[in-house]
Amino acid sequence: MATVPLISQRGNASQNVANVSAWLADAALQEISLIVFPEASLVGYGDTLALRRRELVTLAEPLDGRSIDAVANAVERTGVAAGVGFIERAPDGRLFNSYVICMPGGGRCCHRKLHMVEHPAIECGEQYTVIDTTWGVRIGILVGADNYLIENVRMTALMGATLLVAPHRTYGSDSNGDAALQRLSPGQRSGPHVAHGAVAAESASAAAWLRRSLIARASDNGMFVVFSNGSEKGNNQSGMIVDPDGRVLAEQCSSSSPMVSTEVDPSLIAGSVGQQCLTARRSDSNGPFVRSMPPRGNAFAQRSGTPSRGAIALSFAQVSRIRQT
């Protein structure tokens, strides 16, 4: 599998889709099965807070819209599965920051970002998302700041995910141009200001903190992690693939090729310490936790027609997050 921290243009979905298609063709030549692009890779990475709702609606598309259809067609041509981010317009008109994985054979799985505070018109998703594949891994999807919270990754792992797809975007920076983390709540955006030096220090360490955090989550849960980060400025792109023991198998930085890839050995999962710890969890202690998370309908869309060569059988499980008061 591979990660590509794609450089995307705001409001130019057709060009962004063309870039995705070109990378898929290149990935096919390298016999790559899955390629992961950043959060919002089809709409651009800039902060959406200043946009009006009608501007967001212009950028938004349904799950079966023109851009996702074009990506799905490229997946069919190349046989390479692809994960891309977009602003989703639901059938009832609601907007979501969503991420869809398109599979050869027509399968599409869509995850709606759980912690969405970038714009009041974009709603938060309510479900975790996992996908069964024939590759020997079960894919979980968490978008952007979803990955910051330990609980989100753990719940995805408890649902059986052994490969975490973690798309991200960096749309904030300090005066020095250093990347900043996304916000997890409106209060963090509008909170009291701190000294400039503290802001700079926090921003400068954000990318390093996120890298360490994802490595820790891979080790904690005995799962592979594929990270792909896009940036509005074009100088904070990054990508990383981590194995279930927390080893970085491949990593991209500004001085290297935009695409990095590695072979993934699913047999590493069962032998990892993280998976052994998950197996040793007491089932009786999970009862109240699990009972409070009833299953919900999923966001899976299966295309009609005869599956093409390389089609992958999929099943899905999505569970609502616990709401605490």
TrEMBL record:
Alphabetized UniProt keyword annotations: Hydrolase
Naturally occurring in which organism (per UniProt): Caballeronia sordidicola (Burkholderia sordidicola)
InterPro entries (UniProt xref): Aliph_Amidase/BUP, C-N_Hydrolase, C-N_Hydrolase_sf
Ranges for domain CN hydrolase: 1-266
Annotated Pfam families: CN_hydrolase (PF00795)
Keyword check for DNA damage: no
Any one GO molecular-function label of the UniProt entry: hydrolase activity, acting on carbon-nitrogen (but not peptide) bonds, in linear amides
Record keyword Hydrolase present: yes
Protein name: Nitrilase
